[in-house]
Amino acid sequence: xxxxxxxGLSAIALAACGSTNEQESAPSEASASTDEVSSETSEQDNSxxxxxxxxxxxxxxxxxxxxxxxFDDESNTVEGTLDITLSNLVRGEEAYNQLVEWNEFNAEAPxxxxxxxxxxxxxxxxxxxxxxxxxxxxxxxxxxxxxxxxNEYAFTPNEIVATEIYAGGETTxxxxxxxxxxxxxxxxxxxxxxxxxxxxx
Length: 201
Hints:
There is one protein chain. Strands 1-2-3-7 form a 4-stranded antiparallel beta sheet. It is of the alpha+beta class. The chain is globular, with a radius of gyration of 30 Å. Helices cover 28% and strands 34% of the residues. The chain contains 2 helices and 9 strands.
């Protein structure tokens, strides 16, 4: 009888230990599950960042859509969008040689800077067929996040800055801007009301 009684106590003790271990492992499993959910949420937040923001620039060669505002003769707003696709980017000596080929009076970039030239294909979409949108320009944004002052001008043969475009219209033109030599940059389209960022690589 004593042996049976001792065996019974041992079984109860083992069962109790097993229950305690299961209870201790439960919070650990719950914590792991919470970490996985947090990681998934963070990835979703990053992937859902609006395309065209500085944190999520439009990849070079892909089309970015930019919301725009035009104004009629009575200063009423006309909403629309631009579909912008960049291509044919060159910079540095190659860019300067191209500028001189276009116009011998195009000057070298200031010290510490280089010319960046690229093409932009622009399509304007709007429900208003009568009010045009005035195409604006690009600036470089350096690796610190600062805009690069554009104090130099270079002639390009098919410049489209300040060109009017109507709903359904499409045009392609060249841009020439300065940027820090050899530095990673973003290309920022800005019309004073709306900005959109594009990768330069």
